[in-house]
Amino acid sequence: AVSVEHTFMVSQVKMTHLCKETLATVVNGQLPGPAIDVTEGDSVTVHVVNKSPHNITIHWHGVKQWLNCWADGVPMITQLPIQPNQNFTYRFHVIGQEGTLWWHAHVPFLRASVHGALIIRPRNGASSYPFPKPDREVPIIIADYWQLDLAQAARRMMHGYMYIFSNASTINGKLGDLFNCSGVPEDNYVLDVVPGTTYLLRIINAALFAEFYLKIAGHKFTVVGADASYVSPYTTDVIAIAPGETVDALLVADAPPGRYYMVALPNQAPLPETQTPQYTTRGIMQYSNSHSSADGPAGLGSDRGAEEEEEGSSGDVPVAPEMPDIHDTITSYYFHSNLTNLYHTVVPQRVDERLFILLSLGSICQHGQSCKRGNSNEDLPTATMNNVSFLNPTGKTPLLEAHYYHTGIVDVMQELPDRPPRAFNFTDRALIPFGPKEMRLEPSNKATVVRRFRHGAVVEILFQNTAVLQSDSNPMHLHGHNMILLAQGLGNFDAAKDVAKYNLVNPPVKNTILVPNLGWAAIRFVANNPGVWFMHCHYEFHLIMGMAAVFIVEDGPTVDTSLPPPPANFPTYCGHDNNLLP
Ligand code: C2O
């Protein structure tokens, strides 16, 4: 094991796309930011130098941070934000995980441009992959491009203005030829391939608001990993990936040499009137020596979809795949249902704590009076878990410090209830439960909810989506622990018949669980990593509106199972504004 060191210079750079110059906050001048490439067992040191005007933290998404909650990078939960012109050094080990993770800013909206891959290779080299050794490995980061100032966009959304959207979707930072400036198409991401070779695509969804379908015309993928955990090889022509998730997939260049579109299509549930627009983008998979029309992909007409080229017969035009419908949520449901762990999963059988977490939207009064059911215009929408909308802590002391030093702050916080306040038919689209016709939202309360777990407790959570939620699926992400996905289903969870569906043999192990559109997901995890861990929806829109909670895992009985003191360079309060959106 070695020590891998990076310096991340966070600054604003000018970018010109779609005829407009934008100031984007990025790392080391690049978008996506630098990839961190390590071998399992390595230690990682990242010096973050904040030359941007934003308060910032960096989160190492999916890294377990064993006994190292201090490095988790969640502002006001695990650390004070890094102020403009301040530095902070993150130090962590990558142990017991192999595959693809990623890193991103964890202040509102900034992860749209502050993100990159975190690749963890096996100790014994690529020949020890539990699948045929690929000839090349390529990160594929799906994200979105924003011309709006991200901090300003976040601020507006927090104040109830919902119609905020990006200007384009991207693959590895390229907008693609579906976007143009005065008729001049943007650059496509190009994957140059050699016929007959195998590529390991390390796919990351870094977009703020949308789940994506990824397809390449004329090719299939074999999925071998998800969230840095190996899965049984699963061959498919479409990959579904939600914000926060990663998918490792093998791609064999075995088609007739030519050019093929690689299309990323946002998948959005119906009810378009409440959706912000999302954009399809495309890259090109290009075989070497395939630029002339003579080498064009003959005989693949059946793969040509509705997005077929406009330029007619030129043989140089890539073949387009046929994509799922933009409102197709079932393909994603099946994709996720088909993932199983490559190995036997050790599923703890004894359950110590059960939570039923209802994911929904609510409303809150702006002026402190009690809300009337029926939402006056004064009320702000909220996103909730069991009808509570998370209030981000402010002040001088992050929760982790307060917890570690027993200041008492955490002890008086409201507890996340272990069930919703009332039951109704959660997924009946015809019957919006809080009033017919216009959507009336349940008045919710806003609080910094926490939930304490004894060290080693086995926790089972049933996440239930509602029809109120614009029929979104919800990618639920837990910091510091992996979750075992026991089962998912459509409609309302019914213990009497659904518990029998739990996979106790080889369920997938993930850090982000996509709770299906109008459905539920059941997970278990062992609360054995002491600290203060964020648990939230990875749609930025839901996170910012409060679909989050904090899980506190108590110390174990020994030094080896207890949280050590903070690192020496930990930022302390120095009179600056810790507001996440100053
Ligand atoms: Cu990828 Cu709390 O985040």
Walk me through this protein's architecture:
The chain has 582 residues and is mostly beta strands. It folds into 3 domains: 1-124, Cupredoxins -  blue copper proteins (Immunoglobulin-like); 129-343, Immunoglobulin-like; 353-561, Sandwich (Immunoglobulin-like), CATH 2.60.40. Helix content is 5%, strand content 37%. It has helices spanning 150-158, 330-337, 399-404, 495-498, 540-544, and strands spanning 3-17, 20-27, 36-39, 43-50, 58-61, 87-93, 99-105, 115-121, 136-145, 168-171, 180-181, 184-185, 190-193, 198-205, 211-216, 221-226, 230-236, 239-241, 246-252, 259-267, 281-287, 353-364, 380-385, 388-390, 442-443, 445-447, 450-453, 457-465, 474-478, 483-490, 509-510, 512-515, 519-527, 531-537, 548-553. The strands form 8 sheets. Strands 22, 23, 25, 28, 30, 31 and 33 form a 7-stranded mixed sheet that branches. Strands 10-9-14-19-16-17 form a 6-stranded mixed sheet, with no helix packed on it. It starts with a strand and ends in a 29-residue tail after the last strand. Residues 292-314 have low confidence and may be disordered. Bound molecules: CU-O-CU linkage. Residues 59, 61, 104, 106, 244, 477, 479, 534, 536, 538 line the site of CU-O-CU linkage.
